[in-house]
Amino acid sequence: MPNRPRILIVTPEVTSLPEGISPDADDYSAKAGGLADVSAALISALYDLSCDVHVAIPDYRSIYHGNNKPRHQREVEKIRRRLQDERIHFATDRVFLYKNGVYSGYSDKDLKVSLAFQREVINNIIPRVKPDIIHCNDWMTGLIPALARRYQIPCLFTIHNIHTMTSTMTEIEDRGIDAAAFWQWLYFKHPPFTYGESRDTNRVDFLASGVFSAHYVNTVSPTFLREIVENRHPFVGQELRQELAHKWNAGYATGILNAPEPEFNPAVDDMIQFNYGPKNHRVRKQQNKIFLQKFVGLETNPDAPVFFWPSRLDPVQKGCTLLAETMYDIISRYWDTGIQIVSVADGAYQKHLHDIVNFHGMHQRISILRFNEHLSHQAFAASDFIFMPSSFEPCGLPQMIGGIYGSLPIVFDTGGLHDTVKQLNVNQSTGNGFIFNVHDAQGLNWAVDRAMDFFRLDPDEKENQLRRIMTESVLEFNHSRCAESYIELYEKMLKRPFLV
To answer: In angstroms, how far apart are the furthest CA atoms of the chain?
Structure first.
C-alpha cells in the first residue's frame, strides 16, 4: 500500500500474536471461536507483509495470565513488557480482570464488556494510534465505525458471526461513550427524529450500526454474503439484511474467505504423532490412524475408513442432528469395511450422540469425545473424511483443514462450504470433497456413499487424488492470500470517497 498506512485492528478475540508485535506472543489467548484464530493469523500475515498494523484488544488478564491456563502463567514483568509494546493496545477496565472467557453467556455482562472495550478504543486508543484505517470485527465493535465516520477515518467492518446486541444511548453514555458526538451514524430500532427523542428508549443495534456506518463491509464468505442479501436465511434480522443489501448494491460489500492457521499442516504439526506431506501421506496417515484408534479405544484397523466430526455439536447450525439420524445406519451399512466415527467436539448434542452409542453398544466403532486441541489435530491426521453438514456456514475452517491433511470433507452446499469445497471428480482430477444439496438425512447418506465409493478406489488412484488435493489445499487456503485480499480492500478504501 502507498505510504504504509497505519491499520488499527479492533477485535474482542485473539489467540496469538507475532513476535515482532509482542514479546512472548505465544502466551496470548483470548478465544471464543474462529474469530480469534482469524484475527491472530491475519495480524501475523499483515505484519509479515510489512504493514504498519496495530491491535486493540480487551485486557482479559485472568485469561492471559490466569493460574488455570498453563500456557499463560507468566510473571508481572512480562505483563508490563506486553503493555509497553507500541503495537499492542490493551483496553483496560475492571470488567475484564476476572473473566474466564470472552463471552459470559449472559447478555447484560457481555454488553458491559463490549461498552467498556469500545469506550477505551474510542476515548484512548484511536487518539493515541491515529490510524489511517480502522478494521472492526463483529458486534462487540459495532459503535466504532460511527465514530470513524465522524472523523472521516475509513473503517472496515467484518462480520464473522450473525449475532447482535442492543442498547440505549443513555446506557452507552453512562459507560463513558459520548454517543451524542456520532449518534446520527448509529442504527436505531426505529427511525430517530432527534437526539433527545431517541436517547432513552430507541435502542441501538450494534451489528446493524457497524454495517450502516462502516466505509466498507465484508463477510468471511462471498456466498454467505449473497445468501444474506437474497434473504435465504430466516435467522438474519431484516435490519441487517437491508443494510448489507444497501452496501452490496452500492459496491461497498464483499466476501473474503478466512484461512486456517499455519500450524494446521501435517508436515509441521507438532500435535500429531507422525508428520507427513502430499508425497508420503499413504503410510503416515495409516500410522496416525492406528495411534488414534488405540488412544480412544476403537478397534485397531489401519484399513478401516474413519470419519471425523470436528465442529461444535450445535444442533441449530452444524447439522449434528443429521449425524444422529444417520450414525447407526452408516455404521451398519458399511460394517464389513470396519468403518469408524470419531467426534472431538463439545456442544449441546454430545449427550445425545453418547446415548445412541450406548444404546447400540457401538463403542469400538464410534468414539464421542470432548474437545481437546491435540486430539483434534490427531483426528485430522488419522481420518479419511470429515463431517461438516452445516445448515448455514459464514465461512468454516475444518473443511479447509481437512483437505490439507488429506481428510476429505462431506458438506452441505451452503455459505463458505460452497466457496471452498467442489464435488470430487476422479476422472477429471478435480474437486476436493463430497457435497449434498438437500439438508436432510437422505442427503447426508448420499454424500457418505460417494465418499465410500472414493475409499474403495484402487489405492494408487486414491493416493494420486489425495496428493493433488493436499497440494492444492495448502496453496489455496493460507493467510498470505487472505491478507493480500484485505490489503487490496484497504487500498480501495483509501482511494474511494465516503459516498454511503
So the answer is: 74
Contact criterion met (CB below 8 Å) for 24 and 75: no
The per-residue pLDDT for 33 is 46
At 326-345, the pLDDT tens digits run 999 999 999 999 999 999 99
How is residue 217 annotated by DSSP? E
Query: Residues 176-181: contacts with CB within 8 Å, 24+ apart?
Result: 176/119, 176/123, 177/115, 177/118, 177/119, 177/122, 177/123, 177/143, 178/122, 179/143, 179/204, 181/147, 181/150
CA distance 451 to 224: 25
Minimal CA–CA distance to 115: which of 151, 165, 69? 165
The span from the CA of 218 to the CA of 108, in Å, is: 27
Cβ–Cβ < 8 Å for 285, 275: no
| Integer Cα distance of 248 and 314 in angstroms | 30
Strands 434-436 and 133-137: unpaired
Residues 6+ apart with CB under 8 A from 236: 162, 228
Q: SS3 of 341, please?
A: strand
Residues 77-82, mean pLDDT to the nearest whole number: 38
Note the pTM of the prediction, 2 decimals: 0.86
Do 82 and 24 form a contact (C-beta atoms < 8 A)? Answer: yes
Distance of CA 305 to the CA centre of its chain: 28
pLDDT at 100: 55
DSSP letter (8 states) at residue 207: H
Residue 124 to residues 40, 118, 131, 153, 261: CA-CA distances in angstroms?
A: 22, 10, 12, 16, 31
**Residue 418 to residue 244: CA distance in whole angstroms:** 20
pLDDT one-digit tens code per residue, 124-153: 999 999 999 999 999 999 999 999 999 999
In this prediction, what percent of the chain has a pLDDT beyond 90?
72
Average pLDDT on 390-414 reads 97
190-212 exposure pattern, b = at least 16 Cβ within 10 A, e = fewer: eebeeeeebbeebbbbbbbbbbb
Q: Within 10 A of 412 (CB to CB), how many other CB atoms are there? A: 25
The tally of CA atoms less than 13 A away on the side-chain side of residue 479 is 20
DSSP string, 66-112: -TT-GGG---HHHHHHHHH-TTEEEE--HHHHT-SSS--S-HHHHHH
Q: Say whether pLDDT at 12 is over 60.
A: yes
